[in-house]
Amino acid sequence: MEHWQSLLLGLIEGITEFLPISSTGHLIVAQRLMGIGTISPADKEAADAFAICIQGGAILAVLGLYWKHVKQMLLGLIGKDPGGLKLLFNLIAGFLPAAVVGLVLHHWIEDHLFGLWPVVTSWMVGGVAILAAVWWRKKNPDTSNKRELGHLTWQLALIIGLLQCVAMWPGTSRSLMTIAGGLLVGLTVRAAVEYSFLLGVLTLTAATAKTALDKAHASGPEFAHHFGTAKLMLHQFGAANLAIGGIAAMVSAFLAVKWLVGYLQRHGLAVFGIYRVAIGGIVAALILTHTFSA
After folding, report:
1. Residue 171: phi, psi to the nearest 5?
2. Which of 65, 159, 195, 201 is the most buried (most CB within 10 A)?
3. How far apart are the first and last CA of the chain?
4. Where would one find coiled-coil regions in this protein (predicted)?
């Protein structure tokens, strides 16, 4: 992997991770276009690990932006902020469904859904769903009072967590499902976005840690059977590329998150629905014209 490739992948990760357009789908397409992860099973294993580990940069960006909530939860743990403790329990409730489903179906998802056609399908279905929801809201405006983050209950958080499980299908978008879930249970736009970002920190941290600790199962070079996935990735791509990708993800995620909150409050999700349908159509056309294989 060249440095410019790790920089580009980091920018893609940071920009798309918290937008409702699927970072996983974009990274799969970008890696295919650059020929990364296509040489052997071990190369693909390392590429998948790289894509997950640079999420650490995006995690740091959200921790910095939402340090107030993080501090609140830390104070809650030592009994000094009941609201912070409640928020922490709500995040755990939202995280548990994905943790259980992820542990059970992780390998099946990697084996069957990490292809271009599954990504294209989820991009387009999700885009149409967003546009249909926007149309419905215009015809049936919701005038009821909305909940702020402090009024979220663990039962409602669990519903958001169940919807997050759908995003394990690459291309669906974890942010889309959790923001939509937050709006569904009655949160304000700002509260839904904030909960989505904070839940993302917990979910992505767990996914990154699991990848770093997992044993490689690729049927490639012999070292893949003796070292963890993280070491396999570093052997293939080097520490410098991981650092470049992580820093690029952190900076771009910081800017994307700051922009998204205000944008959604002013304009809603429609543009993301249009984008998802458009990029799904473009990638489908590239596959059908054999520009690259599915």
Report:
1. 100, -15
2. 195
3. 22
4. none
